[in-house]
Amino acid sequence: MKSVLITGANRSIGLETAKQLSKKGLFVYLGSRTLSNGENVVKELSENGFQNIKAIEIDVTNSASILSAKNQIENEQGKLDILINNAGILGTQPQTASETSVDDIREVFETNFFGVINVTQVFLDLLKKSDSPRISNITSGLGSLTLHSDPTWKYYAVKNSAYGPSKTALNAYTIVLAYELKDLNFKVNAIDPGYTATDFNHHSGPGSVESAADFIVKHTLTDEDAPTGQFFSNDIEDETGISPW
Questions:
Q1: How many whole angstroms separate alpha carbon 233 and alpha carbon 215?
Q2: What is the average per-residue pLDDT within 159-165?
């Protein structure tokens, strides 16, 4: 049975992704910053027929928490097949370039960018023990510099100085990581689930969590011929789903 760790999975898109992967027969580690919150979610899932889901405490901004989670998974599974870096924060709003403090920007980057790097580097050894390791970095269309430079883009006016740039940096890291691992069996991609109605954005997005999670699963459970180092977006209206950087 393949194993997957999803950070920030106790609600919204991360939770729905956990549910869909469980249905596909994977053993899911449902990452939560607070173990009790994760365990409450898993209890409810179990009561509704979901199997092979276990809560695990992991705070992506805390190195000791990440290492503890790694040690637990290593003891229980011996390896990790899939890492989905889903945990993220929006940060205080608005985020103007002229007035948003460096401290506020740094806080967003700590979770959305540096947190991903910390988790990925700690778990690489376990992922290398898998026959077909996958790393999916959950990003946003707001991280695309090409789209942000296009006045015809439907979200052109949605500009911020912390959240979007943190995802741009994440996209850049994804490219570098994918290149470094290209001669192994890794597939490392940035995946934008699209503008989705969640607590994250006060349910303002037009997309559903089911569609968002389905898109993540589609571009995570890939075969050996699938691309690596790519940027997929659920908001791109063509069959490839490939977004410009």
A1: 8
A2: 98
pLDDT above 80 (res 199): no
Buried/exposed code over 13-49 (b: 16+ C-beta within 10 A; e: otherwise): bbbbbbbbbbeeebbbbbbbbeeeebbebbeebeeee
Give the pLDDT of residue 131: 97
| The model's pTM | 0.97
List, for residues 55-72, the tens digit of each pLDDT value: 999 999 999 999 999 999
Tokens 């390896």, located at residue: 79
CA separation, residue 105 to residues 21, 90, 94, 99 (Å):
33, 10, 11, 11
Q: Per-residue DSSP letters for 178-192?
A: HHHTTTTT-EEEEEE
Model pLDDT, residue 207: 81
DSSP 112: I
Per-residue DSSP letter, 58: -
Residues counted in the chain: 245
- Check residue 202 and give its pLDDT: 63
The answer to whether the CB of 190 falls within 8 A of the CB of 219 is no
Contact yes or no for 14/8 (Cβ under 8 A) = yes
